[in-house]
Write a structure and sequence with these properties.
globular
């Protein structure tokens, strides 16, 4: 059975960039609904029901749209929460091996931020932007529709391990930013 984990910070911790009301609704209503619906959908796939969330991503293509969408929604949101933290609680820029890979692939951290922002802003309709470590060890910035992610074998064109994501479904930002997705992504 999959469960909704508590956030690693309070609902007010990301202000002023993300307001507490949006964060709480996003976590307790939207993310929680993916977890609930995933558990219900897995009843039709008992051989997949005990897989951990990451392992499940690799086999969703042989299940159903309900499992694909809700397993992806649960995984992507879990990563999204882990990628954020209160101002001053983490390093403002990558360091070590990740910084070297970003410089090698994109030329600079600023160039990477530009490409990541463009991937998020230019995602038509709802979806996700990702920074992914591909199977060959290189980095890739891309976006996916719906709740697809690069762990999903047989779905999408870029596969690997996502290490950074941005939710660009409107529920992630609409209360504070309305239709201003670029402003949300920049913040």
């Amino acid at each position: 059975v999959h469960t909704l984990l508590p956030l690693p910070y309070s609902y007010t911790a990301l202000e002023p960039h993300m307001d507490a009301q949006t964060l709480e609704i996003h976590h307790t209503a939207h993310h929680n609904s993916y977890v609930t619906k995933l558990n219900a959908a897995l009843a039709d796939f008992p051989d997949k029901a005990n897989l951990d969330l990451t392992a499940l991503q690799h086999v969703v293509s042989v299940t159903s749209p309900a499992v694909i969408n809700n397993a992806g929604g649960h995984y992507n949101h879990t990563l999204f929460w882990q990628n954020m933290g209160p101002v001053g609680s983490s390093n403002p820029t990558p360091f070590g091996e990740l910084a070297a890979k970003i410089d090698q692939k994109f030329g600079s951290f600023e160039a990477f931020k530009g490409q990541f922002t463009a991937a998020a802003v230019n995602r038509f309709a709802s979806g996700w932007a990702f920074l992914t470590v591909k199977q060959d060890g290189t980095l890739e910035v891309h976006n996916t529709p719906g709740h697809e992610n690069p762990l999903m074998d047989g779905i999408g064109t870029i596969h690997g391990v996502p290490i950074l994501t941005c939710d660009v479904w409107e529920h992630a930002y609409y209360l504070k930013y309305q239709q201003r997705r670029p402003e949300f992504v920049e913040n």
